[in-house]
Amino acid sequence: MSSNIQSKAFDFAVRVVRLYQYLIKQHKEFVLSKQLLRSGTSIGANINEAQAGQSRADFVAKMCIASKESREARYWLELLCCTGYLDKNQPQVISLVNQSDELIKILTAIIKTSQQKTKHTKLTTKN
């Protein structure tokens, strides 16, 4: 797996932390932003954990968790926009939403590829 996804997830986490700091300081919003902070920083942690997976199945499981966390972070960003805490037309918000979408796509591709390799490995070992 490329370290590209790791660096993208880390960059996303840094941006989420900064957004969280802004939301609690400027808007006094603590509930939704905390959920975003938790899910947005968890993505990279799970990707790093996947690197130490004991098996391909373990790797896929951790990457699936990272994918779920990416989708959850995307949900919280959307909710923060719809409730007026964030302006969905602001370039920084658009960029963050696009970055979360990119993480989801990359993680989905990694998971599919890993699952196909697992199926292929099982088929070749049976023969």
Automatic annotation (TrEMBL):
Domain of life, source organism: Bacteria
Protein name: Four helix bundle protein
